[in-house]
Amino acid sequence: MRTKIQKFGKTLMGPLSIIIASGLLLGIVSILQNPSLVGETFANAAIIQNIIGGVQAIVSMMFALLPILFAISVATGMAREDKEIAGFSVVIAFVIFHVVIGYFLKLNGLTAETTSVEHLLQEGMNQVRAVEISNAYELMLGVFTYRMGVFGGILVGLWTAFIHNRYHTKQLPTAFSFFSGNRFVPIMIIVTIPFISFAAYLIWPYFNTAINGLGGLIGRSGAIGTFLYGFSERLLIPTGLHHVLNQLIRFTPIGGTAVVDGQTVSGALSIFNASLASAQPDMETLRAATRFLTQGTHAFMVFGLPAACYAMYKTAYLKNRPKVKGMLLAAALTAFLTGITEPIEFAFIFISPVLWVFHAFMAGLSFFLMTVMGVAVGNAGGGLIDLTIFGILQGTYTRWYLIVLVGIFYAVAYYFVFKFVIEKMDVKTPGRASDSEETTEDTKPEASTKNGDNLGAQIMTALGGKENIVEIDNCISRLRLVLNDTSIVNEALLKETGSMGIVKIDQKNIQVVYGGKVEQAARALKQEVKK
Predict the structure, then answer these.
(1) Which residues are catalytic?
(2) Where's the PTS EIIC type-1 domain (predicted)?
(3) The whole model's pTM is what?
(4) What is the sign, positive or negative, of the torsion defined by CA atoms of 409, 411, 412, 417?
(5) What is the pLDDT of residues 159-168, one digit of tens each?
(6) How far lies 319's CA from each of 172, 314, 430, in Å?
């Protein structure tokens, strides 16, 4: 079950990459709109306004498509093979799902007209209640339905993956053989998805109330809630389940609900981007959303963990420092610029519970401090790029300078705490293994280049050969593998390929951390396995 949840968490990353890219575009055009940075003449120039309008239209459409993007990502990610068929089928499922819900709503007299605020006010309802009821519904791809957001997409994606994995190899009697295999999947979708729609029609109002209640509870918890979020998110890093927590906060009412320019928006990242695109953003709404976003990560990603890398370098044995210098420098720069921290974290979280808990506590504290100080820096990257575009270049209203002040303290704290714990407890961070544990030139496995042509072959050999590999996948920093037997994996050889560490989940599932080079490693391994 844990493996399936981890795989599910990975599927949620697909839409996130699109939204982050859209957010970066939005951040750049918002800078062009700021007269204090570019001047009144430039900011109000017709061509600039046209560019800004075009980008905002694109970004708005991407957020409107989030539910179906999640549906496609989940269906194709959870499908074991023939993923393109799952992607084709889930679009059919998504449309039918909402059409059926809309049909049942219409039978009960609920349409876009009868649930509009104006109609409800004419019926004698008060303003607050009218807005509340109207916001429970929306038009999805032109179909009137419940406002389910990404939950609807995730539900449809999971059901499609289930049907696909169960029936994509189904063989029918000879007379109906044309409809066998992959052709049978969309047929089963058409037959079964109306029942899922009917169940959702009955259950969703109660589920929606519960989710909104949870979101309200988190919202009322203030800075304590953000501390718990930051602390839990870092503790979950080794399991990969942090992706699930992140996406729930970023795209569902658990991360908050707000009305921006007359439209109801749910999820911290969605609210932030909608506010950033608004001509007159409400600062309180913006700050409430960003407390769950990158402002809480900059202190330890940009400042703390690079300092921890320096501490690991300084505590490495003198003879080993040249060996680990390049690896630690690359890991530090990756965290500093992009916010990808796992190459650093995997160097200590499995060998030092003290450092792991310290790191998680400092992450929670960072979220807490940014909330208390009213910082307003958003997006979902976490490195210097996000800090620059969504903090420094946006102006002083973001209070980005407070992040820098806290970050300096974090750099000092991380360096001295890591240095003290590593030396005091003899933690075997990179460069501190004994001679017997170090791999010498004579005992190094063959095939030695991280970037060479035989990278895929070397990884495959380290994993026990082609016959031991069942499934290959990857997320933003890890290879996620299903093997026949994880006990025969050669960890020393994997390190030769550039791996920063491995996580053996059970006898069949393993994750190999590569950081920013994971796409290259996954591609090379897939090509090698196909030979």
Answers:
(1) 475
(2) 1-434
(3) 0.72
(4) positive
(5) 999 999 988 8
(6) 67, 12, 12
